[in-house]
From TrEMBL:
Species whose genome carries this gene: Thalassotalea castellviae
Pfam families in the cross-refs: DUF454
Residue ranges of the TM segments: 6-37, 72-90, 96-114
PROSITE patterns: PROKAR_LIPOPROTEIN (PS51257)
Keyword entries, A-Z: Cell inner membrane, Cell membrane, Membrane, Transmembrane, Transmembrane helix
InterPro entries named in the record: DUF454 (IPR007401)
Membrane topology: Multi-pass membrane protein
Metal-binding among keywords: no
Main location per the UniProt record: membrane
Cellular location(s): Cell inner membrane
Protein name: Inner membrane protein
Length: 119
């Protein structure tokens, strides 16, 4: 029951991430899928059957890989977000902090393997 509630909470956060650019959508759905895999096969299957996010969740669960399009969109979005933030910030220290803060997730996503058939 606890994992089901946590999964629903993360689906809600993912829903907010669709409309709020500061919240990521896919990581929240991956956490929700992990919770549902252990607590509710029905809800887990509903996530996998989703046309938009189902393939990404499937690839992640099967091979810890992501589709090429998702990787490109993620990396470009990170670069644009950092660039815009640095443009808005007056302090050089804050700009450096933002770049460092996003550098690790950027490297993580850049190093993820592509899903089979996506090379």
């Amino acid at each position: 029951m606890f994992l089901r509630v946590v999964g629903i909470f993360f689906v809600g956060l993912a829903g907010l991430g669709v409309v709020l650019p500061v919240l990521p959508t896919t990581p929240f759905l991956l956490v929700a899928a992990g919770c549902f895999a252990k607590s509710s096969p029905h809800l887990h299957q509903k996530l996998l059957n989703n046309k938009t996010f189902g393939p990404m969740i499937f690839h992640w669960q099967e091979s810890r890989s992501i589709p090429k399009r998702a990787k490109i969109v993620s990396l470009i979005t990170m670069v644009l977000g950092v660039s815009y933030s640095c443009w808005l910030l007056d302090s050089h220290y804050l700009r450096i902090f933002v770049v460092i803060l996003v550098a690790f997730p950027f490297i993580f996503v850049a190093r993820l393997p592509l899903a089979k058939g996506e090379n």
